[in-house]
Each structure stands twice: as C-alpha cells, then as structure tokens.
Amino acid sequence: MTDTHLPVDRRFGLDRRITLPGPLRLDGGALLSPVDIAYETYGALDAERGNAILICHALTGDQHVASSHPRTGKPGWWARMVGPGKPIDPARHFIVCANVLGSCMGSSGPASINAATDQPWGMAFPVITIRDMVRAQAMLLDHLGVETLQAVVGGSMGGMQALSWPATFPARVKACVVIASTARHTAQNIAFHEVGRQAVMADPKWRGGEYYADQDPPAAGLAVARMAAHITYLSEAGLTEKFGRKLQARPDQPNGAKTFGFDADFQIESYLRHQGIAFVDRFDANSYLYITRAMDYFDLAEEHHGRLAGAFKASKARFCLVSFDTDWLYPTSESRAIVHALNAAGAPVSFVELASPFGHDAFLLEAPELNRVVDGFLRAGA
Ligand SMILES: CC(=O)SCCNC(=O)CCNC(=O)[C@H](O)C(C)(C)COP(=O)(O)OP(=O)(O)OC[C@H]1O[C@@H](n2cnc3c(N)ncnc32)[C@H](O)[C@@H]1OP(=O)(O)O
Ligand SMILES: N[C@@H](CCO)C(=O)O
User: Fold this and answer.
1) Measured from the CB, is residue 156 less than 6 Å from ligand 2?
2) Contact at 8 Å (CB) between 134 and 165?
3) Which of left, alpha, beta for 34 (phi over 0: left; psi -120 to 50: alpha)?
4) CB 375: neighbour CB atoms within 10 A?
5) Is 226 labelled a binding residue?
6) Domain with CATH 1.10.1740.110 in the chain
7) Which regions of the chain carry the CATH code 3.40.50.1820?
8) How many Å lie between the centroid of ligand 1 and the Cα of residue 362?
C-alpha cells in the first residue's frame, strides 16, 4: 500500500493519493484491484476519533473542496461552506474529501492505468455505482483510522453518496446532510444524461473510448453534453434575469448584434459555449459516461426490496435534508419522499426548502441560509 503526497502547493489542507491493494468488489460483479483514491484532509482527528466529517462531491467535482485547485488556482468548490470560521471548520473537524471512483482527478477511473495491461482502462473499466463509490470511501476511512463519521455531507450526487452511507454502513454514520439531491434517478434525469452520453459517443474522436494515446479527446461531444447538462443546473428565472434575450458583445459589435446566422448571437448561447469548452479542459469524457451511468443506476429503494424506508432501518443517524425551490433537476418533492421514508423508519430528520433563484447549482453559490442550516445541524449533534 502506498500513500503519497501529490506535489501541489496548499494554503491549508493536504492533497494525497493512496493506492489500496483491494480488491474492491463492485455491484456489477467485477473486482477492482488496486484502488487509487485521491483525497484531501483538513484539520486533525481528535483523541476520541469522533470529529471526522466526510464531504462527498457532485458529478464533476473533486477532492479540492476548500483549498485552491492546483491547476486553475480557483478556490475550492465549497470554500463557502468549508474552512476557518465556516460551518465545517478544520479547527473543529477532521475533514475528508475524496475524488470518487470513476472520476479523473487521481482516483481509479477509465483514464487511469489498468495494471493488467499497462494501458489506460478506457471502456474496459468496470461499470460502477454510487454504492461502489461509498465502499471505496470506506476503504480510505479505514486507512485514515476513522471508524465512525460525525457526519457525511453532500450536494447533488454528493447527496446520493451521503444517503448511501447510512444505508451501506449504518454503524459508521452519526449524522447525514443531503442537499439538493434525490434517492433515485427519475426518467427525466436519465433522459438528460443519455443525451449527454450520446453526444460524447457520436463524436468521431470518441473511438469507443480509445482516445488517450494521441491525446485527442472527443472535445466537441463532451462540450455539447455539458451544455445540455448545465441548463438543468440552472433555472428559467435565473437565466431570464442574467441573460434574457440580450445579445452578445463582439469586438466588431461591442453592443451585440444579430448576424442572422448561427454565431452565438445571444448571451445565453455564448455562455453555454463557454461552459462547454471550459469543461473539456477539466474533465475526461469516459469518466463523464461512467459517473452519469452510476447516477442513473442509483435507486436506494430498489437496493432495499423496493422500500426506501428499508434503506434506513438499521441506521442510528440524524438526517438533515435541504432542497431549493427552483431546483427542477432534483425538486423538493424528491427530498420530501426521503423525509417520509425516514419518518417511516423512525429516523430523526429535519428538512428545509430554501428559496433561491439559482436552481440546482444553488448549493455551490453564496447561500447564507444554507450555511446556517448546516452549522446549526452539525452543532446540535456535537
Ligand atoms: C459540485 C462539486 O462537487 S464541484 C463542481 C461544480 N463546478 C461546476 O459545476 C463548474 C461549472 N459550473 C458553474 O460555473 C456554475 O454555474 C456555478 C454554480 C458553479 C458557478 O456559478 P457562477 O459563479 O454564477 O458563475 P456563472 O454560471 O455565471 O459562470 C461564470 C463564467 O461564465 C462566463 N460567462 C458569463 N457570461 C458569459 C457570456 N455571455 N459569454 C461567455 N461566457 C460568459 C464568465 O466569464 C465565467 O467564466 P469563468 O468561469 O471561466 O471565469
Ligand atoms: N454543477 C455540479 C452539480 C451537478 O450535479 C457539477 O457539475 O458537479
């Protein structure tokens, strides 16, 4: 087993990658060995080993939750929530955030090397599930000497992992915070993901996922996939307020003008193109296929004989559910269904729907009310 520091400059926090021998038995039946997990920690484990908080990231997130990204220098994706003086604070908590299995920021995924062939896995990487991601995190926590989590916290796909934790390891979780998430992917969720996957696979550069050798990825397909997905992370009201029908300024047309053609005349078109292009620079197309698939397969009730309450039967955890009123990707009704199941299972649960114009991605933006809810919930159990 090796545990190495990755060579990055850190404001605070420690960026590492561990190679665990495994094997990790995956829901699909495959055995993964070895298992690489890239992660960051902040703060220190207390003498009782009782202050660990695991933060689970969303679809395209990473382990850089609170410290600046080593490549872009941008602040961590949840620096608003995690850091000195924040609800999740390295002065009080031992904070762990790991890159999920299947991703491309250092953990085992389709872009990493298959030890059996000495080549990138590509589409030979085994299909993974949310529960497989959670099992890999449990292996990391074993390595770090964390038996019980004070809390597991996540938004979006991070919330799916957070929910999966007490269902998979009921004795290891004392509290669970689930933000803007769901206990299952609906037909509409799967439909949007399938559009994105088909955009990637229709790009001639995808080549069955074998594009690593000449470093010529299916950038156009992945950018279109991200553009479509990004719309689902926003809200109509937010888009109207930010862009409306405003025209995009260009060097030759500083106030914008219609070209009566197919340039990005509208600001919203230009914005989406920017989001698509920026995404290609930071994400692997095959990882996008694998992780969206894991989300589509997620159905916590199905894993427990069709009863969502059954998933929480053995759990002793307290739960905090948060939704946003403009999130149409994982609307409040999905959180309510989880709350009902938790009530049926007799689990302590608090639930709040917050108002925000920003849609699903509101959990990533400045949201003082969200910080107050998370802070209050974590302190109540400390
Ligand atoms: C969840 C995790 O675990 S981490 C993964 C989360 N991260 C992401 O999803 C990254 C991409 N997502 C986003 O940017 C999301 O919208 C958010 C919520 C995270 C950020 O939202 P905001 O801070 O409001 O940023 P916004 O959506 O306005 O995008 C700003 C970018 O659009 C660009 N932009 C804005 N308007 C235009 C336009 N008309 N034309 C072209 N580009 C534009 C800005 O220049 C800026 O570019 P930059 O990010 O390269 O600096
Ligand atoms: N925008 C976030 C949340 C999506 O669920 C991401 O890309 O991970």
Assistant:
1) yes
2) yes
3) beta
4) 15
5) yes
6) 190-287
7) 2-185+300-380
8) 12
Ligand 1: lining residues by beta carbon, under 6 Å: 57-58, 60-61, 77, 248, 267, 270-271, 274, 278, 361, 364-365
Q: What is the CATH number of domain 2-185+300-380?
A: 3.40.50.1820
* 382 residues of the chain, pLDDT tens digit each: 667 655 444 555 677 899 999 999 999 999 999 999 999 999 999 999 999 999 999 999 999 999 888 888 889 999 999 999 999 999 999 999 999 999 999 999 999 999 999 999 999 999 999 999 999 999 999 999 999 999 999 999 999 999 999 999 999 999 999 999 999 999 999 999 999 999 999 999 999 999 999 889 999 999 999 999 999 999 999 999 999 999 999 888 888 989 899 999 999 999 999 999 999 999 999 999 999 999 999 999 999 889 999 999 999 999 999 999 999 999 999 999 999 999 999 999 999 999 999 999 999 999 999 999 999 999 998 7
Task: Give catalytic status of residue 335 as yes or no.
Answer: no
The answer to whether residue 360 is catalytic is yes
User: 59 CA distance to ligand 2 centroid (A)?
Assistant: 5
ipTM score assigned to the predicted complex: 0.95
Q: Whose CA is nearest to atom 1 of ligand 2?
A: 361
| Closest of 153, 142, 151, 158 to residue 103, by C-alpha | 158
Whole-structure pTM value: 0.96
Atom of ligand 2 nearest to the CA of 157: 5
* 305 classed as catalytic: no
190-287: in CATH 1.10.1740.110:
yes
